[in-house]
Specification:
about 130 residues; 3-stranded antiparallel beta sheet; 4 helices; 6 strands; about 25% strand
Amino acid sequence: MIVLTWSDFDRIDHEAFEALFSDFGHGWNRTPEIAALPAHLTFFRGQSTDAEPGLSWTLDRKVAEGFARGHRNICVPDPVILTTEIERADVAMYLDARNEREVVLFKQPWSEDCEVEIFGGQPEVRP
């Protein structure tokens, strides 16, 4: 059920979901979408510099740039792009319902394990 509704929300309580995922263990993430991913992956995340890395990442840097610019009426005051390397076994879910190539991890990566790039992209202007 989590997979079916995850894409409907923003501002996920990452700590609560990390605790929930730890209760299930890694055995439940055996989906064809996850099995098709490479064993070792590079993930990206657009966010504010003062936020901790969360559970939701993307395999598409352009998607991360969009999140760094701000999205769906969420303002990002000091945008950065985080990059990290993760093993497929650490992936809880893979979702592409919103064309975001979203990868949800079982637990947040340590900040020290992420490359941080200050992002100076312009906000997206919509008509």
